[in-house]
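hey can u check if this looks right to u? its 440 residues, i copy pasted from the old doc so theres a chance i mangled smth
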Amino acid sequence: MWFDEVESIAELFRGYLPYYLVIALPIFIIISPANPVAASHEFPVYRMQQFDLHGVQYGCRSAPINMEAKALSTWSSSRHCVISKIQDLSMERFKEISEKAGALVVVLPSDLTALSIEDRQNILELEDLMMEREVSIPVYFTHWNPSIDDVLTDLSTTIPTTPQPARGSALETLMHSVSANGYQIVVNTHQSHTRTDVSVANIQGKLGGHGMEDKLPTVAIVAHYDSFGVAPDLAFGADSNGSGVAVLIELARIFSQLYSSQRTHAKFNLMFLLSGAGKLNYQGTKKWLEDHIDSIDGSPLQNAHFVICLDALSSGKDIYVHYSKPPKEGTATSNFFQELTQAAKELNPEVKVELMHKKINLADKRMFWEHERLSMKRMAGFTVSALKSHQDYSRATILDNTIDTESIAQKASILSEALARYIYNLSAEDVFTENLVRQT
């Protein structure tokens, strides 16, 4: 009889238990302390850079996301959207995710200025890698906050979807799956497409010299105003090239005061240009040169002694002058280099002026300095920067969000002194601030 009862109970489990589970499990989830509604979060995200340059595609090629969220250690297929802190994302992992996952959300620190030197360098290298290739999956960036931290914690405690040894019993796995939080990453947006309505804006001004302007020599000062980074909405470009723009405006202010007085109105035309699309092979500068050099009408730029390009002047104390072709002794460019070196010695002996020669490689898809546009037109031009190399990662990064105002003021002072000595033909003893400013 006892065996008959056991058999009846076994038959009950075989026949009705699956139906009880279907009813009971949702009830367990509802009454569970972890409220499913509380796991819903909304936060702003910023899409990765995307652009085409000379037929070559760069950056993220897709935009919408509607996928299950997984941590860096638990994702397994193209149906998963990986969410990870940028400090945990190596170059090798990014390559794997971009080839095999469905999407990627990168969590940035809430304070980018508090990064360690090692973390900062790793992010710079990762950012450069991401922007130098085409990425087929959607990639977004967001800043850390407590809600996102909760999501990351929940995802990191979820069991991996790939088989792991010594996982535990099947019941343990089932209970873990029931109690764990799951997330769906949704970005409702249209698919990306090429924009054909983008226009590049240049802002230019001129201080005409004393006399017949079309007969006078010209010096031009140029700075591009664009920022660049792996996520356009997060790229502020404080140093590259906010500092260059700031110094250009300061030079325009100083010399406009001098040119407003007849006693200090130099026999030089000064042209100023804030150029657009600087990070896209300096397309704004290219258009500006075509308008002034290739035009039929005469332009003061056609009589330019040289063009000074300003880029990233805040990141170091020294001054590096980058050029494509070494100037001959006694030329206008060579003379200005001497004035710049002398002005730096007198105003701040700690500041070194170093000349950096780099030939233009026509096989390169990217132009690295703005003066290269001038060199291709056989014009005398050079770039003044606090960066020693064109390969410095800080020229194109979302970490470029602070500047050293003291360094910028110092560079502006040295450049204005050197330029004043050149156009007014002053000796080294005639200090700019003590003579010209006093006369105005």
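Residues 39-187 form one domain.
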